[in-house]
Design goal:
With 159 residues, this protein is mainly beta. The protein has one helix and eight strands, in the order E-E-E-E-E-E-E-E-H.
Length: 159
C-alpha cells in the first residue's frame, strides 16, 4: 500500500484535497465527520494507493463530494463551520511526506470578509479606507479657521 501524493487548499466554506494519481481505477472516497479516506488503483503498474486523514476540523460529510479525472481525484470537503480558517489539513501537526499545500490555489480568503477579521485587521482597514482629513470628526471641538493643509509643509531631506 502506498499513500497517494496529495495537495490541499483552504476556502471559506470548504477544503479541497487533490489526490494526484493518474489513470485511477476503483476509486473509493469515504467522508466521515472528522476523517477522509481515499483509495484507488493507479497508473499503468496498478499500484494500490490508500490514504486516511484525520481532519483538522469537522466536515459535513453529506455535502462533501469528489470528482475523478485522468490525472487526479479532487475532493471537496464542506466545512461544518464555514468561515473558519484551517491552518492545516490534519488534526495532528505531524508532517506527512505525501501531503503538501497547493500554493497555486491557496488564497488568504480571510482578508475578503469584514465580519471574519480580527480587531486589528478591521482597524487597519478602517484607517486605509478613510479619506482625507475632512472625513475625520472634529475631536478637539475647536473651530479652526486655518486651512486643513496648514501642516503639509515640505519636510527637510534626510541626510
Amino acid at each position: 500500500m502506498h499513500p497517494a501524493t496529495a495537495k490541499w487548499y483552504d476556502r471559506r466554506d470548504s477544503v479541497f484535497i487533490e489526490f494526484c494519481v493518474a489513470d485511477s481505477k476503483d476509486v473509493k472516497v469515504n467522508f466521515d465527520k472528522t476523517k477522509c479516506g481515499f483509495s484507488c488503483i493507479g497508473g499503468t503498474d496498478n499500484v494500490k494507493h490508500e490514504n486516511e486523514i484525520d481532519l483538522f476540523e469537522a466536515i459535513d460529510e453529506n455535502e462533501s463530494k469528489h470528482k475523478r479525472t485522468d490525472r487526479s481525484v479532487l475532493c471537496y470537503l464542506r466545512k461544518a463551520q464555514p468561515g473558519k480558517a484551517w491552518p492545516r489539513l490534519t488534526k495532528e501537526k505531524a508532517k506527512l511526506s505525501w501531503l503538501s499545500v497547493d500554493f497555486n490555489n491557496w488564497k488568504d480568503w480571510e482578508d475578503d470578509s469584514d465580519e471574519e477579521m480580527g480587531n486589528f485587521d478591521q482597524f487597519s482597514d478602517m484607517m486605509n479606507n478613510m479619506g482625507g482629513e475632512d472625513d475625520l470628526p472634529d475631536l478637539d471641538g475647536a473651530d479652526d479657521d486655518e486651512s486643513a493643509d496648514s501642516d503639509d509643509e515640505k519636510m527637510p531631506d534626510l541626510e
